[in-house]
């Protein structure tokens, strides 16, 4: 004899599953604070007039120049939410397996095998977990006041819907688990392989020159790459290409100015040494 009671709690389980899936997105939105939307500055439109486009790109260039190496916190927060996504999927699969009497883990496989079984011996696994007709016990007070037990056949039409919901969830959760694991693998590779960051950013904006992208990324950290990658996904391609060109020129100008200052310092130091030697 198998007792089925979990179907009464399906709606609550689905509600808490939805909250759990929403939590990582909420954490990221709170940490990001709308920064990407504010940095786009209307550059997601290809029809922006020349003056507005020039002003927006100049502001973005000044922002990245002044805030280099300050975006690592957002990158690692995003990576943490991606980890939460994978952890959430795995824990939900384990929870559903426990909720359905350790039958969820093989639910989808059994349903796929069901179609291949012989008509004479096959038994629908969906009906096994979510029966549409079952034996029910009713307890009522009899004429003398004592409790009488009556058994009857009960129809459970809600399980026709429940079985479809959970077979969809089985395939969906396994797909999400695989995609989340691949996403974490990609995130780890971008941390340890800088060349992959150049390739990723170039793939999101093929108009930009890969050499210019490499020069810009060499001046920043992984957090700066992450913010540029978000902008590449949200900006019009020609505008992002112009931003990369401006950043490259800005970094080269700053490097030339720094080299010139260093050369001046060396000349001053040499001059002081020569003056000291002449005095001696």
Word description of this protein:
By secondary structure, this protein is mainly alpha-helical. It has one domain (6-121, 169-279). 71% of the residues lie in helices and 6% in strands. The protein has eleven helices and two strands. A hairpin with a 5-residue loop joins strand 1 and strand 2. Helix 3 crosses helix 11, helix 4 crosses helix 10 and helix 8 (194-204) packs across helix 9. The model has no long low-confidence stretch (mean pLDDT 85).
Considering the chains and any ligands shown, give keywords for the structure:
mainly alpha, two-stranded antiparallel sheet, 2 strands
Helix and strand element order: HHHHHHEEHHHHH
Strand-residue proportion:
5-15%
Number of helices: 11
Terminal CA distance: 108 Å
Profile the largest sheet.
Answer: 2 strands, antiparallel
Looking across the biggest beta sheet, what order are the strands in?
1-2
What low-confidence regions span 5 or more consecutive residues with pLDDT below 50? none
Count of DSSP strands: 2
Radius of gyration: 32 Å
């Amino acid at each position: 004899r198998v007792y089925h009671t979990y179907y009464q709690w399906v709606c609550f389980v689905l509600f808490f599953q939805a909250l759990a899936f929403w939590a990582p997105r909420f954490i990221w939105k709170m940490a990001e604070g709308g920064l990407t939307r504010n940095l786009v500055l209307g550059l997601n439109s290809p029809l922006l007039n020349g003056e507005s486009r020039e002003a927006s790109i100049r502001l973005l260039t000044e922002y990245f120049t002044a805030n280099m190496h300050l975006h690592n916190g957002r990158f690692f927060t995003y990576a943490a939410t991606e980890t939460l996504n994978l952890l959430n999927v795995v824990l939900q699969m384990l929870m559903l397996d426990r909720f359905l009497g350790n039958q969820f883990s093989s639910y989808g496989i059994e349903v796929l095998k069901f179609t291949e079984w012989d008509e004479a011996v096959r038994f629908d696994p969906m009906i096994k977990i979510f029966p549409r007709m079952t034996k029910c016990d009713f307890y009522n007070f009899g004429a003398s006041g004592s409790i009488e037990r009556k058994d009857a056949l009960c129809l459970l039409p809600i399980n026709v819907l429940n079985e479809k919901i959970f077979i969809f969830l089985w395939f969906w959760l396994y797909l999400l688990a695989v995609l989340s694991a691949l996403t974490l693998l990609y995130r780890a590779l971008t941390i340890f392989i800088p060349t992959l960051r150049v390739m990723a950013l170039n793939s999101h904006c093929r108009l930009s020159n890969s050499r210019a992208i490499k020069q810009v990324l060499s001046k920043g950290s992984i957090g700066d790459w992450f913010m540029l990658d978000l902008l590449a996904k949200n900006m019009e391609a020609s505008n992002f290409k112009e931003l990369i060109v401006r950043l490259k020129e800005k970094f080269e100008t700053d490097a030339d100015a720094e080299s010139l200052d260093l050369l001046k310092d060396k000349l001053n130091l040499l001059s002081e040494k020569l003056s000291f030697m002449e005095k001696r």
